[in-house]
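Reading group handout, session on sequence-to-structure problems. Before we discuss, look at one worked example. The prompt was deliberately terse, the way you'd type it at a terminal:

> structure Leucine carboxyl methyltransferase 1

The input record follows.
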Amino acid sequence: MAGEDAVMATNDDAAQCKRFAVEKGYWQDPYISLLVPKGKANHAPEINKGYYARVTSIRILIQKFVETTNRECQIVSLGAGSDTTYWCLKEQGLNPKSYIEMDFLAVTSRKCQQIKNKKALLDKLATEDGDIMWSKSEVHAGDYHLVSADLRQLSEVVKKLSDCGLDRSLPTLFMAECVLVYIDVKYTDQLIHWISENVPTAMFINYEQVNMGDKFGQVMIDNLKTRDCYLHGVAACQSLQTQKDRFINQGWTGASAIDMLSVYTHLPQADVQRVEKLEFLDERELLEQLYSHYCLVWAHQDPTNVGLKDLSLY
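And the output record:
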């Protein structure tokens, strides 16, 4: 993954965009300000609305997964960055039996320090025996694990999941937000295939680019290149079909994919109407163009009929 620093910087950009949108009132997240420093820039309404659709739709699917499994489940966040989902789920009483976050060592090292230094974050990690295992870049605390790994190195990923006590018999949700697109498809295929072979009851939520073969997609690719940021996995982002195929071809039972334009129409419309009033949108065409180049994908395999095949945004 050439330009690893540039890829890690995309986490900071996305996290600051999310914090800005939270401060604008798009959704609630009492923990994001503890993990993400305030950004210097304002963000256009279409950017805020894009993050609203992204965060809200992923939250809906996560909640449905946790409720369907009666919390007898695990969540693995790949390339978790500054994500706050663990704390938000715990606040709602929707935390799974185990929540594992994985990212580059530089990212997890910083997050370790942030958790240590923020009481509100640390308190949520409280375990029955009070035992929290810390290292410079990793945390193991009851139901929460933060570990460093390079997602291109499957053996390293598998070892770290084992270190976290991953129970392969439990329904497990894997999720990635704009992560796989930075990794060559041969590596993501290995990872997706390993999950399908080794975690029988599983769901995967993936959010990233789609329809990247047109002019808008090429401009996006070129702009990222100027930041030394390369979309090595863009081959899987050519269409909604290629997004689904990456899972089906690696042994998953089924997969759904919809662009964010469609996602927006399937979100709770009362909340959408609230959001529409937050900021005036000058160029709706720009928002629609942006939405049509990102998608939400969810794949499943459910041999014991837990109910994962029925989970949907609709």
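Points for discussion. First: The chain has a mean pLDDT of 94. Second: The chain has one domain: 4-310.
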